[in-house]
Design goal:
Strands 2-7-8-6 form a four-stranded mixed β-sheet. The chain has a two-stranded antiparallel sheet with strand order 1-3. A two-stranded antiparallel ribbon has the order 4-5. It is α+β, with helices and mostly antiparallel strands. β4 and β5 form a beta hairpin. About 60% of the residues lie in helices and about 10% in strands. The protein has one domain. The radius of gyration is 18 Å and the shape is globular. α6 packs across α11, α6 crosses α12 and α11 packs across α13. Bound molecules: zinc ion. The site of zinc ion has 8 residues, from β2, α6 and α11.
């Protein structure tokens, strides 16, 4: 048995169409688990200091960063990067300012190293891979109307890192797929998973997909949106532009959306609404 892993937590929440897939054997996964995280494997959960969430984390940050290294190298080898130095410089400047917002929040160490690439394709998206590897497509920079909106994209990607979303998604998938025993341990020890525990046992794969993996992904997107707004606010960007960007995203994806329950990502209109509520509740702005 092998598990196919696609790295890349995106801005729009959909899996990256052109991301290289990494195959891990069952043996590789179990060896990895045994080597790096025996205790979490048994206890199941860790509390995320930044978000306060209790998370199932079977893999450490370093482990998962190593796993994604090849995917990132392949991505950079296969996808052209922009030769527009003005665009690249602009994105990097917004990145520097936004990441300082995350540092100010106490969510990111100032010593953290990041690799930010601007790819020259029409994709209206951006992504982050484990190991602080951030990709921005020219397409999304063309949809955005100002630096504030680009900051909201970059803040969102930083939010995925701070939320440890890649590690959690991989852990939940692994727990569900490696075998019922691992699944049962996860179910027993994770508050979040226990809600879906009986469904996993009864229905297997489909229940895992629709009942666990997809709701997790949607929750991650909303959390990354909100963290991104915190970082924008700290960086002095106009947080209202994050809502405006989701309105633009909604308009350009009109008519090509699956029903939300079948999707990895929340509906764009819902994301705009949740962000608006969050911005009001935090007192960042009135909208
Ligand atoms: Zn995302």
């Amino acid at each position: 048995m092998t598990q196919e892993i696609q790295f890349g937590e995106t801005f729009d929440g959909q899996l990256l169409a052109n991301a290289p897939k990494v195959r891990l054997s069952r043996r590789g996964i179990i060896m990895g688990l045994a080597a790096g995280s025996v205790f979490p494997f048994v206890s199941g959960c860790a509390t995320n200091a930044a978000t306060g969430d209790s998370q199932l984390l079977l893999f450490g940050d370093d482990q998962i960063a190593n796993m994604a290294a090849t995917a990132w190298t392949d991505m950079k080898a296969q996808t052209p990067q922009t030769s527009n130095s003005k665009l690249k410089g602009r994105v990097l400047n917004i990145w520097d300012r936004t990441i300082q917002g995350a540092v100010k929040q106490g969510h990111v160490s100032p010593n953290e190293q990041w690799d930010v690439a601007v790819f020259d394709t029409d994709d209206v998206n951006a992504f982050v891979m484990p190991g602080n590897r951030v990709g921005v497509y020219r397409g999304i920079t063309e949809l955005t109307e100002n630096d504030d909106q680009i900051s909201s994209v970059l803040g969102h990607e930083t939010g995925h890192v701070v939320g440890k979303h890649a590690a959690e998604r991989m852990s939940v998938t692994t727990a569900a797929q490696v075998g019922l025993m691992a699944g049962q341990i996860a179910v027993a020890s994770s508050e979040e998973l226990s809600k879906y525990g009986s469904a996993i046992g009864a229905l297997g794969g489909a229940a895992v997909q629709f009942g666990v993996i997809l709701p997790y992904s949607r929750k991650h997107e909303l959390q990354a949106d909100k963290l991104g707004v915190d970082y924008m606010h700290n960086a002095g960007y106009d947080v209202k532009q994050s809502v405006r960007l989701w309105e633009l995203m909604s308009a350009q994806s009109q008519g090509q959306r699956p029903p939300e329950f079948m999707s990895t990502h929340p509906d764009p209109d819902r994301r705009a609404a949740e962000l608006r509520n969050y911005i009001n509740a935090r007192g960042y702005a009135l909208m």
